[in-house]
Amino acid sequence: MSALSALPFLKPPHLRSPRSSPGGQRRHTLPASEFRCLSPEDAISVFEIEREAFISVSGDCPLHLNEIRHFLNLCPELSLGWFEEGRLVAFIIGSLWDQDRLSQEALTLHKPRGTAVHIHVLAVHRTFRQQGKGSILMWRYLQYLRCLPFARRALLMCEDFLVPFYQKCGFEALGPCEVTVGELAFIEMQHPVRGHAFMRRNSGC
């Protein structure tokens, strides 16, 4: 069973049951809340949320528009978007990495044979912040990664003030990250991801 079909919140649109009215006719309404992998067509919406979230704080974005398109073309299965009535409200974009720790190359490369999922960015639209959506989305994403046979751990880098947030999500700090962006320094964090065979026996993945 594929990871996408194993998780109801990521089931492809063509496999979902259409909503019906009491008379049995199909309703053409968007789902109130939906989680799915992103596609290159979502890139502009992703960038608009990211730009507003990060430029006001750090003056730059983790991923520029061309880099968002790059990763959504190479590894869309490592992304996750939260949509409310068809509108993107929060997202995560990741790629694969094949070394123990992140390096400068990890900012732009996707290593198809890697077993570490590098989480590049998590962002929530400004009108949906302070509602716990970031934590919920990260929990969903980590559950999804546990059903991917190649994923062994998740890695990310963040500024000091975000360390408590990611610790609450189950990440542990590995220490200062080798990667720098301008004058910004980061803490590298990781979260173990259980193997595919274990999760199939215990959670139906």
UniProtKB/TrEMBL annotation:
Its EC number is 2.3.1.87. The keyword Amino-acid biosynthesis does not apply. CDD domains: NAT_SF (cd04301). It catalyses: a 2-arylethylamine + acetyl-CoA = an N-acetyl-2-arylethylamine + CoA + H(+). Residues 1-31 are annotated as: Disordered. It is an enzyme of class 2 (transferase). Pathway: Aromatic compound metabolism; melatonin biosynthesis; melatonin from serotonin: step 1/2. GO terms for biological process: circadian rhythm; melatonin biosynthetic process; response to light stimulus. Its main location: cytoplasm. One of its GO terms (molecular function) is aralkylamine N-acetyltransferase activity. This is Serotonin N-acetyltransferase. It comes from Caloenas nicobarica (Nicobar pigeon).
